[in-house]
């Protein structure tokens, strides 16, 4: 790493770090909420459902931002390229939501059953084993977060 980073790069690196940190925070909030609900469906209130989906969408948005930043930095290292390819669905999801007003009529007329527009979220709760849980966020294009 050079001793001096040009201001544009410094700003992009800061944004990249923030996006990665925001994914970590959203992920951990989802874990806490899933543990709060546990085996008690009555704990899965509408507020908790919305918080889970909001955090999933925050992760999608942050992944999209990270892809944009890596492209702006013109990173071509194999791991950067792999990241761009692996998380392309985050950009597709984000763009679909950003252009919802333009697509609403077409989406409403679809005959094939699809997940709810804002997505559907499910997870498996396994008590006393924090290392084996999974969250499945089903958006119009599926995306999985697991540990």
Secondary structure elements and their pairing?
Elements: H1 7-37, H2 46-72, H3 78-86, H4 88-98, H5 100-108, E1 120-124, E2 134-138, E3 142-146
Antiparallel strand pairs: 1-2, 2-3
Helix pairs in contact: 1-2, 2-4
Short description:
This protein has 147 residues and is mainly α. It is 59% helix and 10% strand.
Summarize the structure in words:
- The chain has a three-stranded antiparallel beta sheet, covered by helices on one side.
- The protein is built from five helices and three strands, in the order H-H-H-H-H-E-E-E.
- It has a domain of 99 residues.
- It starts with 6 loop residues before the first helix and ends with a strand.
- Strand 2 and strand 3 form a beta hairpin.
- Helices cover 59% and strands 10% of the residues.
- The protein is globular, with a radius of gyration of 18 Å.
- The protein is mainly alpha-helical.
- The C terminus is likely disordered.
Low-pLDDT runs of 5+ residues are: 140-147
**Which percent bin holds the helix content?**
55-70%
Q: What share of residues are in beta strands?
A: 5-15%
Number of strands: 3
End-to-end distance: 32 Å
The number of helices is 5
Pairing-aware structural class of the strands and helices? Answer: mainly alpha
> Topology as H/E string?
HHHHHEEE
Q: Major β-sheet, in short?
A: 3 strands, antiparallel
- The rough form would be described as globular
Output the strand order for the largest sheet.
Answer: 1-2-3
Radius of gyration from the alpha-carbon trace, in angstroms: 18 Å
Mean pLDDT: 83
